[in-house]
Design goal:
heterodimer; A: MetI-like fold; 78% helix; B: mainly alpha; MetI-like fold; transmembrane (chain B)
């Protein structure tokens, strides 16, 4: 094994390019902490006064904690039910691929991955409004149901690699199909649950389109939707706008700072499988 | 035994019913409305046959939105894949603070596309022009989002800034599956780095390349959030994507049926492109 020393030219290039990623985020933090006079002197400089009142104003203007609560409620509930239900559906499919019903079901769910959301966007608003589902519970149900297309594909691939013998042993011991799934299969799905959980969490938390077309009542708006709705009021006050953006981005950034290794690891593990 | 089978059906049938009700049924409804003249709120409408489809092919706004969306999707797909592959190679090399930089490059992926768009919207209008003025360039001193010829470039920049994160991680995962021995062997044979890349690295990344190309292209064709945050489709209609046209026309323009027909065509286009891409790239994977 040849031990190579640090590759300094590549380190420098990677470091310089990472500034391109960090610059917009630096600007966001800097602008969120300044007041208009400081902005007029220099847009780029570090803030001198730390104007935390921008955050207080943004919290009041956008009813931040209400939107944060909505986003958290929607994301947590959707992710938990996606993991519990989608894996169960995939288990039934994976163990019965020799039967026509389950095989058809598999391709039925998977083919939905190719259907762009726009084709169902207009009618789904009509359907959900007719059923009085244009609210948070309705939104959560849609996330769980729409997750099936991609998640069944990933789960089935993984479950088929789990040997049958474990389940047979459980059956001999008298466990029901449900018991076998919950006690034996579901714990074995931990790595793929991590991948799907992270992906579902990111896409639900950051989703803009479904809340935009579905949520009727302003009290039920999510964090991204609130930024959109208040855009008109922000336009003259950039410091207030950026404080609000930073507040909306911060929960995910904080989670990422602590769980970065785990999040990236979870995503790459699932993608190689 | 029969009881086991019942359990498997109980596990799947509720999901099947819900999926049909909220995915397949609306899709079929969309196709049905495409053959009517419903505006989205009237109580009555008529069956009009293929009239909507014929009109769509004659509609300049639709044509423009397709041209913009394709231009945008191709540019972002190519740029995202080249840049993220280069960054992944860099992150896979022997560099200092590897985990820190990996964390930085992945960061944009966890951020809301809409809010990132709003932030860049401000940078384009108030920050980048300041640099342009310092450089003494009239072109760089303007807000390119306000220029109908160049606004699409601004949207591409934002999409690439955010899109490289996920693809970089996928490529990096791919690079780590390549055994070290291969490089040691090619070192002994005296192969150049360039040769090494094209003969070992790239062929062994083929399946990752396929996935990334298809994902980036599909994402590009469905662009919506970025446009809302950056240009709203303007100036004029120069950056109106297909998704945005269906949304605004269908919900606000009283063109529910007409935009449903547009969505049906859009669906066919996406399926055909995804299928062609998969076929072409997988054939390439085999040839390598």
């Amino acid at each position: 094994m040849i031990k190579k020393s640090t590759n300094w030219p590549v380190t420098v290039i990677i470091a310089l390019c990472s500034l391109l990623i960090l610059f917009p985020l630096y600007m966001t933090v800097a602008i969120a902490l300044k007041n208009p006079e400081e902005m007029a002197r220099s847009i780029f400089s570090l803030p001198t006064g730390l104007h935390f009142e921008n955050f207080a104003n943004a919290i009041k203007a956008t009813n931040f904690f209400n939107a944060l609560g909505n986003s958290a409620k929607i994301t947590v509930t959707a992710v938990v039910f996606i993991l519990l239900t989608n894996s169960m559906v995939a288990y039934a499919i994976a163990r019965n691929m020799n039967k026509r019903f389950f095989k058809t079901l598999y391709f039925y769910f998977i083919s939905a991955m190719f259907i762009p959301f726009q084709i169902i966007m207009l009618p789904v608003v009509k359907v959900t409004t007719d059923l009085h589902m244009n609210n948070i519970p309705g939104l959560i149900i849609l996330y769980i149901v729409y997750g099936l297309a991609f998640n069944v594909f990933v789960y089935v691939g993984y479950i088929r690699s789990i040997p049958y013998e474990l389940e047979e042993a459980a059956t001999v011991d008298g466990a029901s199909t449900w018991g076998t799934f919950w006690r034996i299969i579901f714990p074995l799905l931990a790595p793929v649950n991590a991948t799907i959980g992270i992906l579902a969490c990111l896409s639900t938390w950051n989703d803009f389109m479904l809340p935009l077309i579905l949520l009727g009542n302003q009290d039920s708006y999510t964090l991204p939707l609130v930024q959109y709705v208040f855009q008109g009021q922000f336009s003259t006050d950039f410091n207030l706008a950026f404080a609000s953006y930073l507040l909306a981005l911060s929960p995910m950034i904080v989670i990422y700072l602590f769980a970065q290794k785990w999040i990236i690891g979870g995503l790459t593990q699932g993608s190689i499988k | 035994m029969a009881k086991r089978q019942v359990a498997f059906y109980l596990m799947t049938i509720p999901a099947l019913l819900l999926f049909f009700a909220f995915h397949t049924f609306p899709a079929l409804q969309g196709i049905y409305y495409a053959f009517t003249n419903w505006d989205g709120f009237s109580n009555s409408f008529d069956y009009v046959g293929f009239k909507n489809f014929i009109n769509i092919f004659k509609d300049e706004n639709v044509l423009n939105s397709y041209l913009f969306t394709f231009k945008y999707a191709i540019a972002t797909t190519v740029l995202i894949n080249i840049i993220s592959l280069l960054i992944a190679l860099g992150l896979n090399a022997k560099i200092k603070a590897k985990n820190f930089f990996r964390g930085v490059y992945f960061l944009p992926n966890i951020l809301s596309v809409l809010i990132v768009g709003f932030i860049f919207n401000y940078l384009f209008s108030n920050v980048f022009p300041v640099w342009g003025q310092k450089l003494g360039s009239d072109f760089l001193s303007q807000n390119i989002l306000g220029n109908s010829d160049w606004a699409w470039i601004g949207i591409v920049i934002v999409a690439v800034w955010q899109g490289i994160a996920y693809n970089t991680i996928l490529y990096l995962a791919g690079l780590q599956t390549i055994p070290h021995d291969l490089y040691e062997a090619s070192n002994l044979d005296g192969a150049s780095r360039w040769r090494e890349f094209w003969s070992i690295t790239f062929p062994l990344l083929a399946s990752f390349f396929t996935i990334n190309m298809v994902l980036a292209m599909k994402g590009g064709l469905m662009v919506f959030d970025q446009i809302i945050a950056l240009t709203g489709g303007g100036p004029g209609r120069s950056t109106q994507s297909i998704a945005l046209l269906i949304y605004t026309g269908g919900f606000q323009g009283g063109e529910f049926a007409y935009q449903s027909a547009n969505a049906v065509i859009y669906f066919i286009v996406i399926v055909v492109i995804s299928a062609l891409q998969l076929k072409f790239l997988q054939k390439r994977e085999m040839d390598l």
